[in-house]
Amino acid sequence: MLNQLYTQVPAGVRFMLLSALGFALMSACVKYVSIHGIPVFEIVAARALVSLIISYLDVKRKRISIWGNNKPLLLIRGIIGTFALMCVYYSVTTLPLAEATILQYVHPVFTALLGLLLLKERVQTSTLICIAFCLLGLWVMVQPSLDHTIEYQLPMFSVMTALLGALGSSIAYIIVRKLSQTEDSSVIIMYFPLIALPVSLVLIGDNFVWPSLYLTFLLVLVGIFTQVGQYGLTKAMQTQAAGKASAYSYVQVVFSALLGVWIFNEIPSIWTYIGGTLIVTGALVNVFGQKLVKPFQRG
Fold first, then answer.
1. Helix 71-94 and helix 40-62: axis angle, to 10°?
2. CB 86 within 8 A of CB 197
3. Residue 8, in any domain of the structure
4. What is the model's pTM?
């Protein structure tokens, strides 16, 4: 019966659920090793090392050059991706998993604005609705932190860092869209660890901590779960309409919240539920585009 139910679920949906689970487990591993004394830059370096090995093997399998064609833009993509990942990992280590994950889904706001400014793309009505929902949800989540009479507060520096990570991810996404016209996907992916590994090693400085065998295993899992997430995302986009597949990526919020409760005993506040619902709703409106707003426009 379970096998029959499994086969009834579209392949694209299964891959996107795999992707969401992979990224949620990655975040949980990042937070766990951080709690046990591993610095953020060291976690980034470990993740980059695993990604570099896997990406290099993939490029060699395809028998293509690792350097690509548009080297300046590939280099910029690697730098911005490195900055964004450091911000994301810092927010994961200093915020509850659910909140850190939800804040990443503000990225459609930045992507839309960057598309308007850099690519001269027209902002659709659905995107404007998305921006309104995301900003309202963000305000609901951080409002308790601005009112010192309320006990529940999020560290504002961590919130701002998470938003910088979302901004960096949006810029990287715009660049990847441009690079996809001339570069193989494996080359684009590989430029991230090529930049992230040396930069993070320099930033670690004297703060390097020798991990135990168990923590080393978890650091390797950070890289592996990242690859699982990227693999599921890629396969989902190949086997399912992009909009429908992307909608299921927001299950990562649920996975992260459950992992936060189970592993770290994090209980999301009512502000997180309300703000998170608004942000995810806005993101879903953006995913499904004009199909959701046309009935209202005709009315």
1. 140
2. no
3. no
4. 0.83
Is 9 a member of any domain?
A: no
Q: Structural domain tally of the chain?
A: 1
Q: What is the pLDDT of residues 81-132, one digit of tens each?
A: 899 999 999 999 999 998 898 888 777 677 777 777 766 666 677 777 877 8
106 closest CA partner among 84, 124, 122: 84
Domain membership of residue 298 (yes or no) is no
Contact between 96 and 266 under an 8 Å Cβ cutoff? The reply is: yes
What pLDDT is stored for residue 9 in this prediction?
59
Phi, psi angle pair for 85, to nearest 5°: -65, -40
284: domain range? 17-289
Please indicate, yes or no, if residue 294 is contained in any of the structural domains.
no
Which residue type sits at 275? Answer: G
**pLDDT value, residue 280:** 80
Assess contact for 184 and 70: CB atoms under 8 A: no
**145, 151, 154, 157 alpha-carbon torsion, rounded to 10°:** 60
Q: Which residues of the chain have pLDDT under 50?
A: 2, 5-6, 293, 296-297, 299
